[in-house]
Fold this sequence. Notes:
Residues 13-68 form the HTH cro/C1-type domain. By secondary structure, this protein is an all-alpha fold. It is built from 22 helices and no strands.
Amino acid sequence: MNSPELLPVGRRVAYWRGRRRLSQQVFADRLGRSKSWVDKVERGVRSLDKVSTLRDIAAVLRIDTAVLLGRDAQPAAMAERVEGVERIREALSTYEIALGRPVARNGAVPADRLARDVEHAWVTFQHARYPQAVAAVPGLLAGVQRAAADDPGWGRPLLVEGYRLTASVLVKLGEVELGWLAADRAMAAATGDPVLVAAAAVQLGQVFRAAGRARAAQSAVLAAGYKIAPADPAEGAPGALSLCGTLLVQGALSAARRGDDRAAIELLDEAAGMAARVGDGQDHHRTAFGPTAVDLARAAAALDLGDAGEAVAWHERTTRRDGWRWLPLEHRAAHLVDAARAYAWADDPARAGRVLLDADRLAPAEVRHRPAAREVLAQVARDPHAPAAIIELAVAVGVT
């Protein structure tokens, strides 16, 4: 098959639709078009001459408009990301152990080394080194699946962590459906252990929100969180408080996504009480939960509720704290992307641009590999008052 960037635009639409495993009918439904319209576009009978239509198609296919148009702004990075995701898809499609098929024993990883591999993969993700995390996931999944089959006692927690990490990476890259599969596997592996279920529910909530299922997200995370909630928060262990508090934050963000400002505020206030007991600088169960994380969530909730001014105020207030610097790079960079969106909505493209540049300096992969961040960058770069440095970044990233 010809390289996709050499194909006519209609054939590129067909190519990427196939890569996303969408039928013409499903693709048409998501675009609000007819199947006949899609067929004519892919065969070159109907031309695509409206920028808005191209952007709609690119959004459904989860690619940049530049890629759809065949520009070579960043084909290497796009190809690397797509191939990495395909390898993860293959790893999630492997059922040799469940089906009783023979697996090479010489590839088994000792327990202590496997635990270190899981730890290292999480650190890689939290340092926003997404290409490296993507590359590590397939081998890691094979290792934790074998460990759980050989010795469920010590292997099951590693299996849950492996699936949690996989879901986190996939959601970050905009691969929501595949991330849903990984989060579902984490929940299934965790069943019977309330703490493991609560840990897995963190990623499940993220996946549900990314998939537009905010009500389901809120229901799932609150059920898991309250199941492990200490009767008296003053006596709760930091790990349990961190998990429960994080799930309350997830519930608040889901409520905000649904427009329920009262529930969002109440849940965030409840989480803040737990965060005060935990303190900043902690990372129990990979949550980075603490007072600073809760107040950054207040900014995100305000943004979802349509109050850009409130979001900006929480951003500016919270990022001055010492606790801000103690958060993982991934957490900080993701927040800066949200802050850029808030400034853009508040008609301050200059500050939006500066915040995006800060995010790029802090964690380049957040801006260059995360589709949601690239979308914000493109939006800010189109503003006539955007800083020159943002235009240069947009050109370098390939989103102009």
